[in-house]
Amino acid sequence: MKVLVDICIWSLALPRQTRQLTSRDSLLKAELTELVKEGRVGMIGPIRRELLSGIRDQSQYRKLRDVLRAFPDEPIKTTDYEIAASLHNQRRIAHITGSAIAFVICAVAVGRRWQLFTSDGDFRHYAEAVPIPLSSLRAGSDSI
């Protein structure tokens, strides 16, 4: 099964990251490494754009761009945007808001039956009302 990797997970492993990782972050990074080795990582344009945004140094930008090119974008279809809008509407009724990108991420995961690998707690809230298959760590740790 493919796994759509969220921005917060990618940020733990990308070359532009310089902060110390917590033990949990290290486990998440290791899980991402395993998913890459298994060829199970899914990518969409909005995640790629977010990861590449805000990099001022052009050589660093090119390096990250080149690393990410190993993961082709899954095309986002009209139905994905319709699902995203429906998810947004459902969550809004429950008084939980989210970004447009977050709901597109959810829609792609739901529509493709991909797991979503994230450490962002907002997705847990979305999953309470929407069947978003959240990924979990395989190393015997708690789910994400």
What does this entry look like structurally?
Helix content is 53%, strand content 6%. The protein has helices at residues 7-13, 23-38, 45-52, 58-68, 78-93, 100-112, 122-127, and strands spanning 3-5, 41-42, 115-117. The chain has a 3-stranded parallel β-sheet. The longest helix has 16 residues, at 23-38.
Describe the structure in brief:
With 144 residues, the protein is mainly alpha-helical.
Index terms:
mainly alpha; 144 residues; 3-stranded parallel β-sheet; 6% strand; 53% helix
Strand count, sense and barrel status of the largest sheet are: 3 strands, parallel
Task: Please identify the structural class as seen in this structure.
Answer: mainly alpha
Q: Count the helices. How many? A: 7
Series of secondary-structure elements, N-terminal to C-terminal:
EHHEHHHHEH
* Rg (CA only): 15 Å
CATH homologous superfamily title? 5'-nuclease
